[in-house]
Write a structure and sequence with these properties.
single chain; 185 residues; alpha/beta; TIM Barrel; four-stranded parallel sheet; two-stranded antiparallel sheet; 4 helices
């Protein structure tokens, strides 16, 4: 057995990783109809076979219909995602790797003409420069609904057997609340 610390098991609360090698959240854009089907699963399983301890899936999996992905992301707001994620998780677990996911609401960092063509939402009407959305200023019921959407998406991932999740905030809805440039609530 190697004495290299990078290759030693690592304990993080209740999870033991077989080493300290991981892939961070990123979006390969392999989802089909917003689901992590065969190609998406194979992408992560190959890393598990190679010996990584953790594969982070879904750079910015969408938790709400009004957060349409712009990079072919996973739609974590749909119940049908559970069996697809479960297959991915089970196969990665068979090869000794843990699996986590990154969940987010894009807020104004999306486009109006994607998904269900719902208006983007944000704490202000401030236009997003990269994706050019003019967001609807959020109301209390929007906040309540999106909090519930995060909880529901998290429950779906738990049902699929994921080992944990990450909440993406930088540039996305949560960050839009933190910044005085985008929060007028």
């Amino acid at each position: 057995m190697s004495t290299d610390p990078l290759l030693q098991p690592y304990q993080l609360k209740h999870i033991t990783f077989r080493n300290r090698i991981m892939t961070t959240s990123h979006e390969p854009a392999y989802a089909e109809d917003g689901m992590p089907k065969e190609r998406y699963r194979a992408y992560h399983v190959e890393r598990a076979k190679a010996g990584i301890a953790l594969t982070m899936t879904a750079g910015s999996a969408a938790i709400s219909k009004d957060s349409p992905p712009v990079f072919n992301n996973i739609l974590a707001y749909k119940d049908e995602v559970v069996p697809w994620m479960k297959d991915l998780v089970d196969e990665c677990h068979e090869h000794g790797a843990k699996v986590m996911i990154q969940l987010t609401h894009l807020g104004r960092r999306t486009r109006w003409d994607k998904g269900d063509w719902l208006p983007a939402v944000s704490p202000s009407h401030s236009r997003e420069p990269a994706h050019r959305a003019f967001p609807k200023k959020m109301e209390e019921w929007d906040i309540d609904r999106i909090v519930k959407d995060f909880a529901d998406a998290s429950e779906r991932m738990k049902a699929a057997g994921l080992d944990g999740l990450e909440i993406e905030s930088y540039g996305h809805l949560m960050d839009q609340f933190w910044s005085p440039l985008t929060n007028t609530l």
